[in-house]
Amino acid sequence: MASSNYEAIPWVLDAIRELSPQSILDVGTGAGKYGVLFREYLDICIVGVDQAKRSHIIDGVEVFEKNITRLHEEVYNTLYRKDIRSLIETLPEYDVVFIGDVIEHFYKGEGVALLKDLLSHSRMAVLVVTPALFMKQGCHDGNIHETHLSSWRKQDFKKLSNSHCIIVSGQLVVAMLKAQNQISSWILTQRVLRKAKVSLKVAYSTVVNILIR
């Protein structure tokens, strides 16, 4: 559907903030939520709303015409109204390619091929958001492209690139990184969570040992 889980937003914006891309391709814009956020935090919060002062390229791809509104014209430099698969070979390179709640709408083989193509068109990273578990969904609001055809796991992405993966509220948020790029806030958070998990296990074991003596 044109909307998606809002709880992935902070993780995506953390990645964008740290990578600081000059150009982004938003694949499957839906209602344009992420395009608005990218534009706000890369341009508007720095130079204001004057379009002439914008210095970042934010392009979008949207296959379902009904999703496209005047907002898209305001936010995106160029909006491609096509299926990304028919378009990818003609696109330029972008610093970051974002594909949010889209990859699950492809069969696994098609999805893997698409991610490889997107990686070849990105200089820094491909950012992915997808359900952490398979969610059955068919045609929605007249859009046949909304059907869920595949499920994805962390290891699927790690086979393709140096990937950092985080699961938040049923969403798998993935940064498929290139070269020496990294997202330190994600790494730090994962370390803190792992340390907390170990501490909880130790505390639990200690309590259990005391109780059974």
How would you characterize this protein structure?
With 213 residues, the chain is of the alpha/beta class. The chain folds into two domains: 6-181, Rossmann fold (3-Layer(aba) Sandwich), CATH 3.40.50.150; 183-213. The protein has seven helices and seven strands. Strands 3-2-1-4-5-7-6 form a seven-stranded mixed sheet, with helices on both faces. Helix 3 (70-75) links the parallel strand 2 and strand 3 (79-80). Helix 1 packs across helix 2 (33-47). The longest helix is centred in the last third of the chain and has 29 residues, at 184-212. It is globular, with a radius of gyration of 19 Å. The mean pLDDT is 84.
CATH architecture type of the largest domain:
3-Layer(aba) Sandwich
Encode the helix/strand succession as letters. HEHEHEHEHEHEEH
Shape: globular
Structural class comes to alpha/beta
* Largest sheet: number of strands, sense, barrel closure: 7 strands, mixed
CATH class of the largest domain: Alpha Beta
Enumerate the spans where pLDDT stays under 50 for 5 or more consecutive residues: none
Quaternary structure: single chain
Q: How many domains?
A: 2
**SS strand fraction:** 15-25%
CATH fold name of the largest domain, please? Rossmann fold
Strand tally is 7
CATH evolutionary superfamily of the largest domain: Vaccinia Virus protein VP39
> In which order are the strands of the major sheet placed?
3-2-1-4-5-7-6
End-to-end separation: 56 Å
Please estimate the helix content: 25-40%
The mean pLDDT is 84
Radius of gyration from CA coordinates: 19 Å
In DSSP terms (H or I, runs of 4 or more residues), the helix count works out at: 7
